[in-house]
Every structure is written in structure tokens, then in C-alpha cells.
Description:
The protein is mainly β. Helices cover 9% and strands 42% of the residues. It has seven helices and 18 strands. Strands 1-3-4-5-6-7-8-10-11-12-13-14-15-16-17-18 form a 16-stranded antiparallel beta barrel. Strand 5 (170-186) and strand 6 (189-198) form a beta hairpin. The protein is globular.
Amino acid sequence: xxxxxxxxxVASVPRVAGQALPRLLCxxxxxxxxHTAQAVPSFARQTGLAxxxxxxxxxxxxxxxxxxxxxxxxxxxxxPLANPGADLMPLAVMLEGTPGFTHTSKAQAEGDxxxxxxxxxxxxxxxASLFYAGRLLGPYAEALTNKAVxxxxxxxxxFVQATWDGIEDSWSWDNVEARAATPLTLAGHDxxxxxxxxxxxxxxxxxxxxxxxxFPFAASGLAPAPTAAPLLAGGLSQQVLGxxxxxxxxxxxxxxxGAYSTLAAGTQRAFGVDPTGEARIDGLAPYWRLAxxxxxxxxxxxxxxxxxxxSTYPQRDASRGTDHFTDIGLxxxxxxxxxxxxxxxxxxxxHEKQTLGASQRLGLASNRGNTLWNASFSGAYLYxxxxxxxxxxxxxxxxxxxxxxxTNSGAPDANGWVxxxxxxxxxKAGGPSFxxxxxxxxxxxxxxxxxxxxxxxxxxxxxxxxxxxxxLYLSAWLSF
Length: 480
């Protein structure tokens, strides 16, 4: 007999307008190397909740969306009368940049893009993904086993994404995670305690400030992008496998501790990842996260820190010892929700200390020690759950190292702005009648560079200036 599973309590979660809205797909697209989908229609079908309950706008999480993730992707409404999607398998599909149009201020040189594309004004499918996301065996755990075993399996949630890159014309695994969590009381404190296995440090985080799930949530695969970033900012994604445990104490303090190891080259190739030139972790790289969050009525504030330490073999070459990277980040987020207005402000700063003895001996770095840091400040406003405006300022800076950074100045510096307008026509009334559990986001995004790969002018010695990489990206993002 089907029952409605109670949803975990959320301290002071605001009443989001549209609780009776049809369930929609919400998910996150990747900057590859760093950003992919985080919420998918299978989550909406499992819970029976509207997109606006968990996202503002998708894929940005609300307090309830964070609680869903904290609970291991397992929150569910199993009553088919109240939730018609309750008996469906946890499968979903995403098409991002379908189509997508990319224009840069100056055409890119021959060889910068795959041969089938022109130097400018290209139309392409950016990426397509297939998801298995939700409770481990979907609604069938008890039927496939028995009630006792099914109850245990229903406490395990998964997020598995396979992605076809429309620019490189190749398949690979994308962000993948399994997690389990349980609420308990200890010494008078309310806790949610969980454990996870995933392939991208910071993938399990609850806020849209850390690298794996930060803005911009989608970007053109045909646009030039700065090359320098701290190791934790996407440099290990899909190359590693890690495990960890986390706890939320009294809906206030979040603690996460994990460790990651590089997968064997053959294993990566089997999953569609090219390991050529990557840094291989020596042993395990510890990852940690601390955050304080307070939600009061329509307001939510988070302050946190996170980091990673890794000893690595540069370009997988162990002949000259290891390099050492210490990444430490600070982040903050503020959110406000009302019937017509949603506002989110985010800030992130990530500093990296590099000790490059092995790279220097191999002729890959000029300096034995460097620093590198990046920061971003962004805001998102959603009106009537339908129209969104986003803005971000970003900056990267660090030590000059002509061998490490193949730029005209030998510096990693980059900065600029991202502006984005979104229209979500199905976000209030649901998708078309033949597939109401679908969603569409139409976006206009413009990126302006003040510096690119080290300087503002003639950044690579070819006469190309930073502003020549300014990019207009028009995209349709469909999920079902």
C-alpha cells in the first residue's frame, strides 16, 4: 500500500508562492569542467513538488532544495493519487544550448575550434545529458526485494549523469554521486548525518557558491575562456573518486570532511575522460567544508569556508617527485523570497598556494612557489517565477610564471562581467499537456573581459585583445 512519506522538517522555510504549481524539471548545466545539472525532473516526479519550491530560478537552490539534497535525494511522496509521478523510474533528459548561438567580438583563429565550425557566429548543441537521479531503485525497492531491505535502500540516493558534448562530439560520465543520510538527536541537538561517494570535490555542497555548482550555470562550449584556475575550481572534476561524511547540526552548522584520489588512466578513458596532461594525486587529497546558515522567514544567510590539500604528480609524471597545492576558500550567500520577487546574492574567494618543485624540475614551471586566487560576486533576481536577471563580476590573479602560464605576460590574470537574462515560460503553468513535467529556459548571456590570460591587450602575442573574446551566447535549455 502506497503512503505519503513525511518530508523532513525545515527550520523557518519561507512559504514559497506557487506550492500548487505543477511539478517541473530543474537542473544545473556544467561549465566543463565545472558546471552541470544539479536538479532534474526525476526529483520533481519523486517529491511531487513544484520547481519553485526548491529552486530560484533553477538550478539555484532554496532552503527546501538544500534540505532535499542534505537528505540524500530521497525525500519522496509515494502516493500516486497525490503524486502521479510517484511510480515512474528516476530518469530524465537535458538538452542545453539546443540550439545555442555563439558570437565573439573577434573571430577565433583557425584551429581554435573543431574543424566543422567557423571562426564565429556558430550554431550548435552545447550538450545533452541522460540522468538517473533519485532513490537508488526508484519506487521499486520493496517490490524487487522485501519491505525491510526496501526501507534501507530507500535511504540511499543517487545522481548519475552521462553527457554528450556537442562541441567535441563525444560521450563521458559527468557529475556522479551516491549518498545516504538520516536524522537523529544527540545530546539535545538535532542532526542530519550523511555519507557520500562522488567524482567532483564540492559536488555535495548545498550552496551555489562553491565551484561545482556556481554561476554561470551554462556557458558556450565554443567561446574562449581564461585558462588559469585553482585546482579545486574544476581541475579534478570527473578525474577523481572521493568519499566523505557530513552533518547539519540544529539547522545551523554544516560540516563536511572527505578525501579524493585520481582514477587510473584506463578507468578514466572507459568513462570518456582523457587523462592526458592532468595532475595525478599522490594518495588521497583531503577536502573540508564548514558553513553557518540561518533562515528566518523569507530571509536566508550563509557564511562558510572550504578547502583542499593535494600532493600531485604533474602530467602524471612521478619521476621528479610531487607538487603541493593548498586551496582555501571563503563564501557567503543571502536569499530573499516572496510571492513575486526572489533575490540571491553570492560571493566566493578561493586562494591557492602552489609548491611546484616537481614541475620546476620537469621544466613545466619557472617558479618553485606561486600563488593563484579567484573571486566572484554575483546576484540573481527572479520576477513572478518567470523572468530572471543575473549579473556577475569575476577576477583571477596570481604570480607570473612564463612556463606555467603560456600567456604573453606570463601571468594568469583575468577579469570581467557576465550578464544574463532568462525567460522561463513553463515555470508557473508547467510544460505542454503531453509532457507537463518538463521545463524550458531561454537565455541571453553576454560576457565582457577586462583582462584575459594575463593582460588587457595582445594577450597571446597574436594581436588579439582581451575584449576580442567578449561573447554573446543565446541558448535554449530543455529538460524533461
